[in-house]
Amino acid sequence: MSVRYAPSHVDALFEQKDYLGIYTLIDIRAEQGTVLDECILFSRLLEWVGSTRSGVWQYYENLKQETYDEVIRILEKFEMHKIKSKYQEGMASWQAPVFCAELDQWIDEHEEEIYSEILRHASHIIPQLKINAA
């Protein structure tokens, strides 16, 4: 049985900037078919930003190489160079406590900017997110 969403609900998630709701919607849609790059970008960077609450090193400690490579590819595709650079720096030195503290701080300072970027890209695919599986 597939989950169905009213188009107005999808619109409301974006209008209210309900990041957790959008994340959940994307996760459910991923189970129903192909996931677009915008969805992957939104989900992975939301996880990355959220990881600073307990330390970004934990994000990298459990990150699979193929997921990392995919995020790098998508950041490059969408020309998000500053975020890509910080994301790469984290992978290169996640075991260094001092660097991780600095990266946590950088992410916290740029959290709204990152959220704005991922929301902007995800908003381009709202029509696809409104499609309910048969």
Brief rundown of the structure:
The chain is built from nine helices and no strands.
Can you give keywords for this protein?
single chain, 134 residues, mainly alpha, elongated
Protein architecture, described:
By secondary structure, this protein is mainly α. The chain has one domain. It has 9 helices and no strands. It has helices at 7-15, 19-32, 37-50, 56-61, 65-77, 81-93, 97-109, 111-123, 126-129. The protein starts with 6 loop residues before the first helix and ends in a 5-residue tail after the last helix. 25% of the residues are buried. The model has no long low-confidence stretch (mean pLDDT 91).
Q: What percent of residues adopt helix (DSSP H or I)? A: over 70%
- Helix/strand-derived class? mainly alpha
Note the run of SSEs as H and E: HHHHHHHHH
Count of discrete structural domains: 1
DSSP strand count: 0
Give the mean pLDDT.
91
Largest sheet: none
Instruction: Please state the overall shape, judged from the principal axes of the Cα atoms.
Output: elongated
Cα distance, first to last residue?
Answer: 9 Å
Poorly predicted ranges: none
Strand proportion, as a percent range, falls in under 5%
What is the helix tally? 9
Q: For the CA atoms, what is the radius of gyration?
A: 15 Å
Oligomer: single chain
How do the helices and strands line up, and which of them pair or pack?
Elements: H1 7-15, H2 19-32, H3 37-50, H4 56-61, H5 65-77, H6 81-93, H7 97-109, H8 111-123, H9 126-129
Helix pairs in contact: 2-3, 3-5, 3-8, 5-6
